[in-house]
Amino acid sequence: MGVSISIKSLSFTYHNSKQPAIKDINGEIKDGEFVVIMGHGGAGKSTLCYATNGIVPRFYRGGEYRGNVYIADRSVREFSISEMAKTVGLVFQDFEAQLFSTNVELEIAFGLENIGLPRDEISRRIDRYIDFLDLKGKRLSDTSILSGGQKQRLAIGAVIAMEPSVVVMDEPTSDLDPLGRAGVLSLAGLLRERKRTLVMVDYDPDTPVGADQLWLMKDGEIIGQGRPEKYLSDEKLLLSCGVMPPQTVSLFNRMGWEGSPLTVEAAKDLIEKGNLVKRRNQRKQKDSYFNSNNFFIEARGVYFRYPNSGNDVLRDINFGIKKGEFIAILGQNGSGKTTIAKHLNRLLAPTSGDILIDGKPTTRYRHNELARLVGYVFQNPDYQIFASTVQEEVGFGLKTLGEDHKTIKRNVAEALAVTGLEGYEHRSPFVLTKGERQRVAVASVLSVKPEVIILDEPTTGLDYQHQRDSLEMLKDLNRKGHTVIIITHSMWIAEEYAHRCIVMKDGKVLDDGETRSVFAHEQRLSQASLIPSPIVRLSNWLGADAMTVEGLAEELKSYESLTVSG
Amino acid sequence: MRYAIKMWSNTRMIVLVAVSAAIYAAALIAFKTAIPLIPGVTEVRVAGIFLMTFGILFGPAGAWGLAIGNLIGDIFGGTLGPASIAGFFGNFLLGYLPYTMWLNFFPFSEKSYEWNVKNPKSWSAYISITIISSCSCAVLIGLAVDILGIVPYEVVSRIIALNNIVGNLIGVVLLIAVYELTKNQLGLLWTDIMGIRQDGLSMRGIMGSWLVAIGSIAGMLAGFIPGLSVNLVSWSSVIFIVVGSLIL
Amino acid sequence: MNLSLYQDKDTWLHNIDPRTKLVGVAIIFIICLCFNNPIYMAVVALCVFFIALSARAQKALWTLRYILLLLVIFSVLLWPFFTVGKTPLWSWRFLRLTKESLFYGIAMGIRLSTFVIAGLILLSTTKNEDITNGLIKMKIPYPLAFAFSTALRLVPTFVGAGATIVQAQVSRGLDLESRNIISRFGKFIPLAVPMFISAIRYTNLLSMALESRGFSPGSPRTLYYEPVMKRRDWLILSFMIIVLIACLYMRIFLNLGVVMSGRL
Predict the structure, then answer these.
(1) Mean pLDDT, range A520-527, rounded to an integer
(2) Residue B49: its chain C contacts at CB < 8 A?
(3) Residue B177 belongs to what domain range?
(4) C 115-134 residues with CB below 8 A of A?
(5) CA-to-CA distance for A485 and A156, rounded, in angstroms?
(6) How many domains, chain B?
(7) Partner-chain contact C173 A371, CB within 8 Å
(8) What mean pLDDT do residues B168-187 have?
């Protein structure tokens, strides 16, 4: 087998930066291998990807580049990016930014047009690759009507149609819902079957299972490189790289059981073979959650459709929310999650039905009254940040609500303290990292001290450690009395943090109840194409109650002590 | 003019044209305040906030961006017509004059292509060029729509000029807010993208700037100069502006 | 978000070459400029209106009805006071109204509406990419055409972002409903800054993705959709050129269709 990619003592420092983004990287990837790269935010994963097709150093002037990258024995730095495009296909995280054409076949043709292939060859390639993408009926569809997952598949297909010998994907699924992610991963699987060399940056410990190599990155360096099994069972190493360890491995470590199963199936096998613990019948979960009438927020028969549109985005939504709850709204994109959440502070108003806040319909509040009751943090913090200092940004809401200077100062200080942004007062919010900007957005909503705070996908784009940090912050807020509602695609987040889950599908509430009971019904969740995280699947199989690794370990240990004492 | 041509061989500048055009057009559409000043021709243009910022930060890419953005505004607004051609060139000037006159509009000009909030020269350049570029655009579009029989010159030129000046004066807040990020973090200052070292003050540049300046101010005074017809003044103003812009 | 005026139908205008439509609309614009007599203008307008009906563009026209109405009213009210004719009708202090200037105003109202309708015929029957392809085939440099089509594609995304930004700021208490125009301008700073920044962060990514797909300005490239001029296109163009010549002849040599000489 030939060597596809060979990296020799590669270092790169961006212009204006003191620290190198990647340091002394070495590695060799053979033809047809599948390599997964993992690491914390800012570990240098993207920089490494960019070095494979010459974006680094060509695109970043004034940077310092040392070492070499060879793709099939050609030194990358000697070619322009557009020339490298014929040998290396690079897929980015942001699917919107990679589409340039108006319809699907033109998008596939775009790269081929650029390299000047004759028209009949372009047409042959489109025929060849469109099936592969599972987009056949959509050949002439406008790209803007595709779902996120379809767009990302198209972006991959458009790259593959150029028939590069290497495909590199930089977090191709981070912006997708679970369904979209599954589609992209199955496409990656097809590529592997066809023996295409594939390099993929990802965050999920499931992805490298079965890969040829795993590269673990930390602070610009590779600190682990080799067979995935070896590194996936090393919980400490993974955590130090900001990667979530496989939950099944963590559980086995905590229980002191032999073996490091990487998947739920492997864990079940080991448990059964070693007779490690007895399965029980799962306790009947309470299904209903509603026997209260002091709801703070109430949705009554809410229907919604956008003006000039024929179909309802929300259909007959009913629920009540009490003060002090921590709720997760789950569902695929387009299921109506964000739409219903936006109703809660009247960014949208029902076409029919009512949203009551404190017993009064939202339509009878003024906007600035609602701003004090229900705060809404948008998914992309860049959609609201505008001020030149963090302090001014966080105080903006209070200022527009006409608060006096002293109150503003006090509330801003409090909000910054809660979000861990003390000392940032006079910094410009624009130059902060994505995670920090997210916190500024949360702080600017918190400063108004709303009863309820809604967060739309607050953890998208953050690494494991930062996700944990933000959620701990939300947990803290919840403990202080705020009602917290998050919209999320991340099952483990809902399982670990939410008291209650509302599952949406096609504009309807599919399930609503205590988190444990919602996640006990794997069948029902699968109707919304949601799959519980490994630990909950294992917990369900064992008939246990817990939903976290720690919780399950404790619970299982308590069984053991019961058996021993009994 | 040379940078406005040369930029088309740089991918990042081309993308900047597209992005700034899209921002401008989207702002024309999304923030439409439903106060058409003259229906189909001009409305209260909140998008005017972006003009100088695009010109100063993105240079020629900003100029082409404004030109294309305005055209796209017409396309999505359903008001595509012969006046769109004048709109194209008028809006081009709104982005073109800021970066070409920045060093050349002596004695108001800056010494470097950078914007420095603490330097009074930056302010004098900003304010003087705001007035000149807004008026040049107004004179050019005004004459065209008058000839086409859309709106009389005397009415439309003043509305457009005022609209752009107000937008640009408020727009300085935008420039201050985004300058650092765009230049240092994103590396998108046009002179950095195109790898241009600082140009010096040139006789040719000063001449061009002043031709444009004279043309635009005279154009605004059309109708108030005794003995000279509006027609004569507006035509000669446009000639001054076009010639001045070409040698800039 | 769908902002495009394109109507997905199957009429003869949908099927002809985009170049024919671009040139054809330009010819209609010039014909409109030949006359300033309201009767002649009305004939031109009626023809264009029938073409619009044959393109089944009435729905798009209907959405623009207020603009069309305002255009006519504005012209009729404004022009008479800025042009001078021979036959006085009415005067008050320094305001004078003449028959010719009134007719000119009416003609201009019709002309502007015709501009809008003709533009709309092009936009409602031609997809954005076909306009771009037509432009490329008419020798517009590819990088310029690419910037144009990319901007067209990005506009709906950014308009969507703009709407979200408005929501985000309103939910923080920003009041956009003030009457005063100047203060309204000022309130757009919290909207303009995020709009600018969220879009501009995109630029580097877009350029990287573009070059990674082999884009290189100035290099020769294939055009996958090649519009082809058919016999029908040449026939339509010839016909329109003949009409144009006839109109120019009427105006220049026969001086027909003029109420206000010295103006287009």
Answers:
(1) 92
(2) 185, 188-189, 192
(3) 2-197
(4) 127-129
(5) 34
(6) 1
(7) yes
(8) 90
